[in-house]
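Thread: EPZ complex, take 2
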Amino acid sequence: MEKFVIEGGRRLDGELQVQGSKNSALPILAAAAVTGKSSILLNCPRLRDTDAAIRILRHIGCEASRAGDAVIVCSDAPKRYDIPEALMREMRSSIIFLGALLGRFGKAEMCAPGGCAIGLRPIDLHLSALEALGVHTEACGGRLCCTAPNGLHGARITLAFPSVGATENILLCAVCAEGETVIHNAAREPEIADLAAFLNRCGACIQGAGSDTVSVTPREQFLSCEYTIMPDRIMAATYLAAAAVTGGSILLRRAAPQDLLPVMPCFEQAGCAVRAVKDTLRLNAPPHLRSAKLIRTMPYPGFPTDFQASAMVMASVASGTGVFVETIFESRYKHVPELVRMGAHITVQNNVAVVEGVPRLHGACVQAADLRGGAALVTAGLAAEGITTVTGLAHIDRGCERFETNLALLGAGIKRVHLDVE
Ligand code: EPZ
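Output below.
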């Protein structure tokens, strides 16, 4: 067991390079299994989730190894099309391998991913879209057994909701199908465009990724390639929020300012000065934050649900009242009771949270229940008076690369302590 011990009240100052995107690295690692070639993936973050994806690649018979910030995958001779329950349980988003295995083998077996702390996470949109591509799914004993008895064929698919994972699974399958596929109401998140750019670099022909209509035409053959994974827009915003709540001033390098446009109003309404110059972002925080009035999470280019928790920390220490409406996941306020333990004034009714800012939070012992809520609790500890301890670091380590090291580089009083008790 481990915990973060945070001594709050220190301004964050300095420069930081933004990590590679977890939510782009995971589908691209899965895509590397589809091509049958060698892929060199640069800027791949070292995370529990990317480590889990590498283990899955090795399990199915790919060579996958790390070399610095790169992961090298060779998928010329994969052997298995099943993912064992233990590996699925390590990372719920292993569902992204469903499309990749179907694309590569025409079949796939894995246990149903199930829900997680933030919601039930159904996969009905994935399965109905894959069925349109010729996939037949049988649920046998909690496992998904998928086959394509007549091969994979292109289709016109309209998603009832612009699901990120479903869009990605369709792309991973459609690049190996006979005939064109067109996705309507596709997810527009930047990670979709990054996955498409990787697949196109490998010889696919995907057009329109990043818009709500994406087309995939059959490729001649796949190629080996080298690809740099996009910066993590959620972690960039998380570090900006940490600077904002500590009255700090930080420069983020290798950011992607255009991907953060949906969260810029939140920082501007809070009184922060944010300046983008090429691939850098500088934030100067005011001595005291103002609250953003209304934050409603929406599919991209709306406000990202993954930044809701950290935006709520900003509102917790701002003057005024902020209203949050979480429209994407049904259980994404697990950080609220922990923030209340730190002195935040937050009330929740269904998917609405009302946050009345307080002058200061105070340190407390808090527990992370999910990745983004855990990162937000650390941010709250940086702003709080006194000492905060955060447990549940396994959640945080899934997506925040070198989190305490980076925050300490910016001047935060934070260290990781190993607890004897298991
Ligand atoms: C991706 O999850 C991200 N994960 C999530 O980030 C992110 O919050 C989410 O997209 C929204 O942006 C990865 O990329 C690994 P969805 P995903 O399918 O693909 C419903 C993080 O912290 N839905 O767009 O699972 C679903 O219940 C994680 O990094 C169905 O109903 O998101 C949810 O309400 C958390 N049926 C909504 O759509 C389906 O078949 C959004 O889900 C699929 C989804």
